[in-house]
């Protein structure tokens, strides 16, 4: 029965998973490839034109974003990536109880020799497995883009001073464009701290949606509530960054714990930064949650909501199908 239940959950989620995985792979590869089309010098000119106040919308300073690692790392903060991973977690989480009740299949499941707890946790486990796999798909697509993309660098004429190793630029020299493999300037393993943060965010939304589903009898209604909470959190995040008077909103949005670029930048300067409970955000000059605290908080919140949902499902009276 356990294998049959697992097979059922995998079959029901396969179409959604393939859709999310395909879009994530295509977008992540394309996003990194686009970075290679614009050299750092030109991108710096674009950044310099932006108002200085816009820097508060970024968790890292613009100087780091100009680098190739910084620009490729911002892929993990793109709304497309965050929304697709969250969509999987929310839709599958909302289906744990409400979806089965709405389709009228819960009665058939409970008629078998299987407990409510096993039905809940097996669905939840498949959801978490999907979140982790989608994050690996994002990393694999970014890694492939880094390995296959060539970047354009501008080389200015200069001559070497013998025995010193110094180069002196030639005035009025004509610069030339050279192609350099992106893998020479970007180490794809450096994306790991950001991907772990993305996976932890997915776990939180999976737990939240599962809890909402345990209180409802329709999967579509639980999905709607979960998506509504997602966009409410997103609005709070934008509002907290937009103006100091709304900074308090940052304390009530889960997206304050999702800072993949900050985690990647910190790990580049200090390999042990991923184990820090707190760290200083150099843009805002404020102490913020470090990678360890942020990820543990997301995991703990998601797991707690899932356990509350499982307890609620095991004790509630289930309505008749229809």
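Q: What amino acid sequence fits the structure above?
A:
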């Amino acid at each position: 029965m356990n294998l049959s239940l697992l097979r059922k959950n995998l079959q029901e989620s396969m179409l959604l998973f393939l859709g999310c995985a395909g879009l994530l792979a295509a977008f992540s590869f394309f996003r990194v490839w686009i970075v290679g089309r614009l050299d750092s010098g030109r991108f710096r000119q674009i950044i310099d034109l932006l108002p200085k106040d816009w820097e508060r919308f970024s968790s890292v300073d613009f100087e780091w974003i100009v680098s190739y690692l910084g620009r490729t790392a911002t892929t993990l903060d793109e709304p497309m990536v965050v929304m697709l991973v969250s969509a999987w977690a929310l839709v599958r989480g909302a289906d744990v109880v409400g979806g089965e009740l709405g389709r009228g299949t819960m009665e058939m499941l409970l008629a078998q020799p299987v407990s409510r707890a096993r039905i809940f946790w097996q669905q939840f486990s498949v959801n978490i497995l999907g979140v982790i796999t989608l994050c690996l798909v994002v990393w694999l697509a970014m890694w492939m883009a880094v390995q296959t993309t060539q970047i354009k660098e501008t080389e200015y004429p200069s001559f070497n001073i013998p025995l010193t190793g110094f180069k002196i630029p030639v005035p009025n020299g004509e610069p030339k464009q050279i192609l350099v493999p992106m893998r020479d300037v970007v180490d794809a393993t450096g994306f790991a701290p950001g991907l772990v943060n993305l996976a932890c965010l997915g776990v939180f939304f999976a737990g939240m949606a599962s809890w909402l589903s345990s209180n409802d009898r329709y999967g579509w209604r639980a999905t709607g509530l979960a998506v509504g909470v997602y966009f409410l959190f997103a609005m709070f995040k934008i509002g907290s960054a937009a103006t100091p008077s709304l900074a308090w909103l940052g304390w009530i949005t889960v997206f304050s714990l999702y800072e993949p670029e900050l985690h990647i930048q910190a790990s580049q300067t200090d390999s042990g930064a991923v184990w820090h409970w707190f760290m200083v955000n150099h843009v805002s000059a404020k102490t913020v949650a470090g990678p360890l605290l942020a990820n543990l908080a997301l995991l703990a919140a998601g797991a707690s909501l899932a356990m509350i949902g499982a307890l609620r499902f095991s004790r509630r009276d289930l309505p008749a199908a229809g």
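Q: And what stands out in the fold?
A: The mean pLDDT is 86.
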